[in-house]
Amino acid sequence: MIHETAIVHPAAEIGEGVEIGPYSVIGENVKIGNGCYIGPHVVIEGWTTLGENNRVFQFASVGAQPQDLKFAGEKSELIIGSGNTIRESVTLHRGTSGGGGVTRIGDNNLFMAYVHVGHDCHIGNFCVFANVATLAGHVVVEDYAILGGVCAVHQFTRIGAHVMASGGSMIAKDLPPYTMAQGDRARVMGINVTGLKRRGFSAETISVIKKVYKLYYRSGLLAEEALTEIENLFGDIKEAMAFCGFIKASERGVTR
Predict the structure, then answer these.
(1) Is 204 exposed, middle or buried (0-12, 13-18, 19+ CB in 10 A)?
(2) Region(s) of the chain under CATH 1.20.1180.10
(3) Using an 8 Å Cβ cutoff, are 103 and 78 in contact?
(4) What pLDDT was estimated at residue 27?
(5) Catalytic residues
(6) What is the rounded CA–CA span in Å between residue 252 and residue 234?
(7) Most buried among 15, 106, 128, 200, by the most CB within 10 A?
(8) What is the pLDDT of residues 76-123, one digit of tens each?
(9) Count of other CB atoms within 10 angstroms of residue 167
(10) In 3D, which of 135, 142, 184 has the Cα closest to residue 164?
(11) pTM of the entire predicted model
(12) Which residues, at least 6 apart from 216, have a Cβ–Cβ distance to it below 8 Å?
C-alpha cells in the first residue's frame, strides 16, 4: 500500500506487499524488496537497494550522497540486505569511488534512532547500533557486534565479530573479535562472555577465547610473540585463529 501523499518515482522498483507511508519520497533508482515497511516522512534516494522485510521508520534518510569532499557526483550505491530495522532519523549514505563505490549492509541489523553510517562502510549481520552510534567512512563491522549509544568509530576502523562496545566509546583502532571495549579512547576490557553465551558458544570454546585474550593482552608478551604462542597452543581452534587473523590483517593497529 502506497499512501496517496507519498512521492514514488515511476522508475523505482517496488516489490510485493510494500507499505509506503505519508509524505515519503522514493527516488528514481531505488529498489525495494517484498514485504518492506517504509514509514512516513522517509527519504530513500540514489542507487539504493533494499532486500525483503526491512522496516524503515519516520525521518530516516537512506541513500543520500556521501559526506565526502572528494565526491564529485559519480554513481555510487547503498545495498541493504533483508530483515533490518532502521529507526527514526537514521542516516545511511552511499559509497564513493575511492572506497569501491558501495556502502553495504547485511541482514537482521538494528539501527536505533539517530545512528549514522558513513560512506563505504561494510556491516555484517545481526549487529545492533544503539542511539546516536556513528560510523565514519570505510568502517567494517562484523557479525553480531553491538555498539552502545553515542559510540563513535574512526574512519577505516574494523570492529570484529561479537564485539561489545559500551556507550560513549570513542573507537580509533581495530577491535578484535569477542572483546569488550569502553572509554575515550576505547580500551579493551575483557571478553564479551554474556554475548558469546547468548550466541550459543560452548563453555569450552569460551574458555579458549579467554585464554587467547589473556595471552595477547595480559601476558606481557610482545604482540608477535603472543600471536605465535596462540597459534602454537590453539592452532586447531577456529575462534582462536579468527582472533589472530583479524589482528594480522589490521592496518590501523589494534585497540589495547
Answers:
(1) exposed
(2) 196-249
(3) yes
(4) 98
(5) 119-120, 137
(6) 26
(7) 106
(8) 999 999 999 999 999 999 999 999 999 999 999 999 999 999 999 999
(9) 14
(10) 142
(11) 0.97
(12) 176, 223, 226, 227, 230, 243, 247
Domain with CATH 2.160.10.10 in the chain: 7-138
DSSP state of 66: P
CATH number of the domain at 7-138, please?
Answer: 2.160.10.10
Instruction: Give the pLDDT of residue 230.
Output: 97
Hunting for cell 533494499 — which residue is that? Answer: 50
- What mean pLDDT comes out for the span 15-24? 98
> How, if at all, do strands 164-165 and 152-153 pair?
unpaired
Return the CA Rg of the chain.
20
145-156, pLDDT tens digit by residue?
999 999 999 999
Residues 6+ apart with CB under 8 A from 124: 106, 141, 142, 143, 144, 145, 161
Q: Which fold has domain 196-249?
A: Udp N-acetylglucosamine O-acyltransferase; Domain 2 (1.20.1180)
Alpha-carbon distance 172 to 94, whole Å? 22
CA distances from 11 to 3, 8, 31 (A): 17, 8, 9
